[in-house]
UniProtKB/TrEMBL annotation:
GO terms for biological process: response to zinc ion; transmembrane transport. Keywords: Cell membrane, Membrane, Transmembrane, Transmembrane helix, Transport. It comes from Fuerstiella marisgermanici. SMART domains: HTH_DTXR (SM00529). SUPFAM superfamilies: ABC transporter involved in vitamin B12 uptake, BtuC (SSF81345), Iron-dependent repressor protein, dimerization domain (SSF47979). PANTHER family: ABC-TRANSPORTER METAL-BINDING PROTEIN (PTHR30477), METAL TRANSPORT SYSTEM MEMBRANE PROTEIN CT_070-RELATED (PTHR30477:SF8). Residues 452-472 have a biased composition (Basic and acidic residues). This is Manganese transport system membrane protein MntB. The chain crosses the membrane at residues 42-65, 70-90, 96-116, 128-146, 180-198, 210-233, 239-258, 265-284, 290-309. One of its GO terms (molecular function) is DNA-binding transcription factor activity. It comes from the Bacteria. Belongs to the ABC-3 integral membrane protein family. The keyword Translocase does not apply. One of its GO terms (cellular component) is ATP-binding cassette (ABC) transporter complex.
Length: 472
């Protein structure tokens, strides 16, 4: 469905639009070389979708933090039971009764989920699946029996976003899309809820046990949140149908990948929702496809992008930090190897040296061996004399601390766990890279300052300080 399909419908509606907005629309339409009706339809459709996305993103962040994201899926499916129930009781298919029935079904789903979870000792995710599948099945049965009444399941399942720019009527003193009648109150309810219970929401989301200890009712906050989620879900389903699940979860998930601050997460989630709405609608116009579906697709693409490029939690960031750690470990193996060679040398007053090939062998001869040697030289821990490398004063201090950590850990394992001597080296080889001065002091105190390790070798007495090089 393209924008041109709505041109006729907007010809009469444009005359009722406030003059300033009409003039702005005409100017944009002239600049884009498009009919004014197409521009108006695009504006209102994106506005409705963005408002829907913002509502869902705000509550979706708290669902994600509380590990309740499946609740949005449950509420969206249980709506059909509410719609069918209203028809079964009243025989009425008007929008307002249907909306009320859907809202009641959503709240009932949330309450029943908690009831089944607590009373039947069923895991929460399983209780959600039990309740919402049962209610959805009930709705399907009732609708299948209502053959003489047209209940458009396409609107229930996929929403009516494509007609958001056409269905205009006076709302709040302006000529606005009919969807605003439910979305604006839903947004106001959400913002009011966040403003009034901001402190309680943060506390119960991150540490419900502490919240109860301080006198806050974690249960009450749970039911209030699920009620607000039900309001938002029912309102948004009129626009995007069951794809409200994507709007509840995906923007919040993307924002969580990009930040650790709750306030920033909320703003990012709303922004990502709006970007998904705008991008999805433009692609829908370009490809003559479902607007709501492509909005969810764009949101999914943003999630994939965040998974890859997120500085802290993304694949690239983790790969970079992992490679950096491996380079440091390989470099420290070179330092420790040179220090041990120095201990075995006949001239202990001079630093032992090694060729590049020998240093690469100490680093494991892998792809990172060369990077490890460059890492050491760049930090002035190694110096080159012709074709040989040796420790600098800073490098010797750093290496001495590494060997100290290794031998202290071997001593600790033998004394505390009574391990045989041939079982001590491998775990100490790993732990030496992560034991800093503070841990060295604690182990030394715990073991009463041992002078030798279990193999009879002297334990060096200095800490790894090396002018702040440790941990780089």
């Amino acid at each position: 469905m393209t924008l041109n399909h709505f041109g006729a419908g907007f010809t009469s509606l444009a005359a009722r639009t406030p003059i300033p907005f009409q003039q702005q629309t005409d100017a944009v339409a002239q600049w884009m070389n498009l009919p004014a009706s197409d521009v108006q339809n695009a504006f209102w459709t994106i506005a409705v979708g963005s408002l829907c996305a913002a509502c869902c993103a705000l509550v979706g962040c708290f669902l994600l933090l509380r590990r309740m994201s499946l609740l949005g899926d449950a509420l969206s499916h249980s709506v059909l039971a509410g719609i069918a129930g209203v028809y079964l009781v009243t025989g009425n298919v008007e929008p307002v009764p249907m909306l009320i029935g859907a809202l009641i079904a959503g709240i009932t789903t949330a309450v029943l989920t908690q009831f089944v979870h607590k009373s039947a000792a069923v895991p929460e995710d399983a209780s959600i699946g039990i309740v919402f599948t049962s209610m959805f099945a009930f709705g399907v049965v009732v609708v299948s029996q209502a053959e003489h009444v047209h209940l458009d399941l396409d609107c229930v399942l996929f929403g009516d976003l494509a007609f958001a720019g056409v269905d205009l009527s006076p709302n709040f003193g302006w000529l606005l899309p009919d969807s605003f009648r439910s979305l604006i109150p839903a947004l106001l309810v959400t913002l009011t809820f966040l403003a009034v219970f901001w402190k309680e929401l943060r506390l119960t989301s991150f540490d419900p046990t502490l919240a109860v200890t301080l006198g806050f009712s974690a249960g009450m906050m749970h039911y209030l949140l699920t009620t607000v989620v039900a309001v938002v879900t029912v309102s948004a389903m009129q626009v995007v149908g069951l794809l409200v699940v994507a709007m509840l979860i995906v923007p919040a998930a993307v924002a969580r990948l990009l930040t650790d601050r709750l306030s920033t997460m909320l703003w990012l989630a709303c922004t990502i929702g709006v970007v998904s709405t705008t991008g999805g609608y433009l692609l829908a116009v370009r490809w003559d496809s479902s607007a709501a579906g492509l909005m969810a697709v764009v949101a999914g693409l943003l999630l994939v992008t965040a998974i890859i490029v997120s500085p802290k939690n993304g694949l690239l960031g983790r790969a970079y930090r992992s490679a950096k750690l491996r380079v440091r470990i390989c470099a420290e193996d070179v330092l420790a190897g040179l220090f041990r060679r120095q201990e075995r040398s006949k001239s202990p007053t001079e630093f032992a040296n090694a060729s590049f090939a020998e240093c690469h062998a100490m680093a494991g001869n892998g792809l990172l061996a060369g990077a490890a040697v460059r890492w050491l030289r760049g930090r002035r821990l190694l110096k080159q004399d012709g074709s040989l490398l040796s420790l600098t004063d800073r490098g010797a201090t750093y290496a001495q601390s590494l060997v100290r950590s290794h031998r202290l850990w071997e001593s600790y394992l033998q004394e505390k766990f009574d391990l045989p001597a041939d079982h001590l080296h491998d775990p100490a080889e790993t732990m030496e890279h992560f034991i800093g001065p503070d841990m060295q002091q604690k182990i030394t105190k715990e073991l009463a300052a041992p002078a030798k390790d279990p193999h009879g070798r002297a334990i060096p007495g200095t800490h790894r300080e090396a002018d702040g090089v440790a941990g780089e």
